[in-house]
Inverse folding.
């Protein structure tokens, strides 16, 4: 007989877990860390920066060069997010991102500072660094979110070059997809395309949306999130990443959170805001992320082995935590002691 005790603090009893269709591992209450048992809680020294996924190491390095010199967290997260945006091997962020089903590369990004100021762009085409446009929205407009044509117009007015972002490799992948035309969000789908060539989801060469959270030497907390969204999405579809409170939320009094995975579920649950509010009520970053994933799973009637959402959180004390629906989600952390640490997230299966 498996142990059917719900995961501590999950708020779910066994019946609810069964109703939610969670797998046997969740019913057994066993958190997984990609093959290892529960990871030790991680507390970073200040300044520090953390990012979703293993490719966050490179992004963190750019952010660290700002933070280590006494720079501001907002400059650090922008500098860091620009790294995967420019990476041609990365098909889920920035240039070379996989397009929507009509062949348009459309990008989403958001940024938030220690004062609660925020800016975002959604459905932005032809601009390679949406995170920098999001920052301009925050700093130079009375608005929070610009979308589509209006976002592009603003970016061009601000001097960002207009470019073709669909690379030959991404175009070929889109053409291959057109043969099947099946939209099915798959766990770590963006990495799945790399799977055979570059290793398993979460492997060193694999890639996904990046969310970054940083505390600078002054103790200020900022965050950034940037993505090309779900590959082969409908034209006009916007995910969680540019929605403040969903894909990113920062509260300088408490902490910050960001998300990756199927954005629709994160938006429905205002996931990153929820994580921060749970931390405000005393939860650790890990437990807050776990509760946010639990809420998402509670709404899902059918267990889908391909469904993935992951949350990553950092509190003011430098404590880091993460939780995902299933294994494969990793995060990168960086402080004075170690700039290249990669940690597999705990998950329900
Ligand atoms: C979205 N959350 O657009 C993003 C995509 C993502 O891994 O994270 N993909 O829904």
């Amino acid at each position: 007989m498996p142990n059917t005790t719900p995961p501590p603090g999950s708020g779910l009893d066994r019946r609810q877990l069964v109703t939610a269709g969670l797998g046997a591992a969740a019913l057994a209450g066993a958190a997984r860390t990609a093959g290892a048992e529960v990871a030790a809680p991680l507390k970073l020294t200040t300044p520090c920066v953390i990012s979703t996924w293993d490719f966050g190491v490179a992004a963190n390095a750019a952010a660290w060069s700002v933070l280590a010199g006494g720079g501001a967290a907002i400059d650090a997260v922008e500098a860091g997010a620009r790294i995967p945006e420019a990476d041609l091997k990365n098909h889920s962020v920035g240039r070379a991102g996989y397009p929507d089903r009509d062949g348009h590369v459309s990008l989403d990004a958001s940024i938030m500072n220690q004062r609660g100021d925020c800016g975002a762009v959604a459905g932005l085409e032809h601009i390679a660094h949406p995170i920098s446009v999001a920052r301009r929205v925050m700093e130079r407009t009375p608005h929070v979110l610009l979308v589509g044509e209006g976002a592009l117009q603003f970016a061009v007015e601000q001097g960002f070059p207009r470019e073709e972002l669909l690379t030959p490799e991404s175009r070929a992948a889109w053409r291959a997809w057109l043969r099947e035309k099946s939209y099915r969000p798959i766990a770590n789908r963006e990495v799945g395309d790399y799977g055979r060539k570059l290793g398993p989801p979460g492997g060193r060469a694999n890639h996904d949306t990046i969310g970054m959270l940083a505390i600078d030497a002054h103790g200020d907390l900022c965050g950034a999130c940037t993505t090309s969204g779900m590959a082969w999405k409908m034209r006009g579809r916007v995910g969680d990443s540019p929605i403040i409170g969903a894909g990113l939320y920062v509260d300088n009094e408490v902490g910050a959170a960001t998300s990756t995975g199927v954005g629709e579920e994160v938006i429905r649950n205002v996931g990153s805001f929820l994580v921060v509010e749970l931390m405000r009520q005393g939860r650790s970053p890990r437990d807050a992320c776990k509760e946010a994933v639990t809420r998402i799973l509670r709404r899902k009637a059918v267990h889908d082995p391909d469904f993935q959402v992951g949350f990553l959180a950092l509190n003011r004390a430098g404590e880091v935590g993460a939780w995902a629906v299933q294994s494969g989600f990793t995060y990168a952390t960086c402080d004075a002691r170690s700039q290249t640490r990669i940690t597999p997230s705990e998950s329900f299966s």
